[in-house]
Give the backbone structure.
Amino acid sequence: MANAEEFFTTAEAADLFFNAPAATEKAIEEGIVKVRKAPAPKAGARVRRLLSAEALYFVAFLKRCDLEFSQDQKRRLWARFKETPADRLLAARWRLSAGIEVHPGELLVTVHDRVVRYAGARKRWIERNRDIKGGTPVIKGTRMSVYSVRGRIDHGDSIEDVMEDNPDLPRDAIEAALAYARANPLVGRPGGKPWRA
């Protein structure tokens, strides 16, 4: 399971939940899940909001559950997510109130796999270093930016095409770069000539 010290941007969270940004934003707006603020990656960019691994699982649980919870129930659930060790979350059983027992693992198995895989790949393969491309995220051990990988895929190349051109890189590195680039898009002026649209 992703360590409690792992933090994810709200865009990464939405991507891990199969593009569900509304669920993440709702949990933040309700004031139950706390965000950590991180400096913007570049001057002029917005401050990034980061969610803990526990917050990701909590939001995913609420999104996947067929029940509507009151604010008080959500607060109690959040307390349970925070106090349950990461390695026990999938097997946890919590009594929320009379007649309601919650088994979060039943709803979190696929999300758990995605979070753990992405967190591990991001840690292993993505690097930000001011001495390499001015701090633009790159695949570790290379000068290949995550955005160049995304650009190739967005313009028709496959992951196999990128791997063929970079035989020293495993598929996990390319997939991590692509996922990271999608969840952390470049900040700046739009490309092309928008005034001609």
